Amino acid sequence: MGATGSTGGALVRSLADGSAPCRALSRDPRRLQTLLGSGAGPSTAFRYADAADPVSLRTAFSGGRQLFLTMENGPRQVEFELAAIEAALDVGIEHIVKISSPAAEPDSPVAIARGHHAVESRLRTAGITATVLRPYAFMQNLLMLGPGVVHGGLLVGAMGRAPCNYVDCRDIGEVARAVLTRPELAGHTYALTGAETCSFDRLATLLTRLRGQPVRYLDLPPEQFRAQLSTTRGLPDWLAAHIVEIQQLALTRPERPTDAVARLLGRAPRGLEAFLTEHADTFR
């Protein structure tokens, strides 16, 4: 569930060798099939499912054994994820793997994270095996900073010099594959990061080196940054608030890498500098 997203798509691609059959679900299966292209293997079936339609969920899940559940952040995320869990229980799903948040707590200062906590709480009472993946910031989201770097040599945020964990969505997809195909890994909560943290100042230094042109970090007061996200970038209010909340959390809770990716995959996680180099054209 969520095969059109960064982590869902990464999981489908990691299963392309046909080692485990899967259903990639979408409100537009043909578009999803085109999007994934050859990245989806011969054992991938594309099916219709709409989180707002419980009947479609039960139909899509019927006959399955496990559910990978990831949904786009948004005001109805909790409602939709809880509906998916109930549909999965109705048809006999035995194991749910949920993408959550590192700050999934009932009193978290991050509103989206409080929602993740509510969904996790339901999973814990569902009577089936539940695995929770709590990835930190996606490296892929850094690509959205490209226009500001290209046109102004500028990174803008409200995180001061706080270190931030980043993780490649491809590693998240491979971790999801591991917990879905190796029963001994299921039933736990894993916080997923890369091998090192990176502040926005250091990110600016890495991008300067990559571009051969200066990139600087402009640190704004939280409310000013939130207003800029809403007015300049046109983000909805809830998303602008979410970005500010997670950046401010890094200031109050210094982030450190975990070894979860290395333990689960038997190799080091993909590195941030290598990721930026791979996508150098986005920042030039």
Order of helices and strands: HEHEHEHEHEEHEEHEHEHHHH
Can you count the helices? 12
* Secondary structure: helix percent: 40-55%
Oligomerization category of the chains in this entry: single chain
- Please state the overall shape, judged from the principal axes of the Cα atoms: globular
How many beta-strand runs? Answer: 10
First-last Cα distance: 35 Å
User: Radius of gyration, rounded?
Assistant: 19 Å
What is the arithmetic mean of pLDDT? Answer: 96
Low-confidence stretches: none
What would you call the structural class? alpha/beta
Q: What keyword list fits this structure?
A:
four-stranded parallel sheet; single chain; two-stranded parallel sheet
